[in-house]
Amino acid sequence: MPSTNELWNSDSEQDWLMALQRYWSFVKPTHMKIEKEFDSNNVEEIAKLDADKWYEFLREKYFFWKYTAPNRYKTTSNHLKKYLGLGDSLQTLFLIKERIFNFDKENIFVGLTTACEIRGLGTAGASGLLSVLFPFHFATVDQFVVKALLEVEGLPEKSALSKMNPEQLKITDGVILIKILKQKAKELNHEFKSNNWSARKIDMVLWVSSR
Fold first, then answer.
1. d(CA 206, CA 183)
2. Could you tell me where the DSSP H helices lie in the chain?
3. d(CA 78, CA 72)
4. Rounded CA gap, 151 and 161, in Å?
């Protein structure tokens, strides 16, 4: 397995495909079904969800997928549960969904800011939700991505990366990270004469390479 730096600079699509395939070996058996579902990107069906189903999707699917540690899932989903029994709070959550599906997907800052309004989601969690919904526009950016990118030599954003707190990423950090991953996907698609590489796939590769 090439180092993160070697892979980042590799012009071999086989290297990238092997790294992407390796991601699946790290998926817990309990999460494989939801991983496959998200990988199929059924965004049109998610867009049709009503307020109750949107809440269920977040609690039972997205939060379960993002927060794989049981204690972390419990903590974050408890924040989400606050939408229950509070008048029209589920409608408030639904309106956030409507905005998520209707903003300009090139505006990373607006996307992250909107998704962060969901109880329980910080920058990392918000980026994950957007990457599941819009994989060519967003990537899941968290401490593992920061750690991996810091290993890449000559990255223009290295100074900005070194100033980030990987475990408490700001929205502005998220914007920088997602831009890096989107640009890399664009470069790979050009290099390999493909349209298969997305920002989301780059984050999957980096998540593995940082381990």
1. 14
2. 4-8, 13-23, 32-39, 43-47, 51-56, 63-66, 70-80, 89-100, 108-115, 123-133, 143-149, 158-162, 171-191, 199-209
3. 10
4. 11
Check if the beta carbon of residue 162 is closer than 8 Å to that of residue 150: yes
Distance CA 50, CA 57 (A): 10
pLDDT digits over 163-204, tens only?
A: 999 999 999 999 999 999 999 999 999 999 999 999 999 999
Widest Cα–Cα separation across the chain: 55
Q: Cα(200)–Cα(181) distance, rounded to whole angstroms?
A: 8
Band (208; pLDDT cuts 50, 70, 90): confident
Average pLDDT, the chain: 95
pTM of the model: 0.95
CB 65 within 8 A of CB 37: no
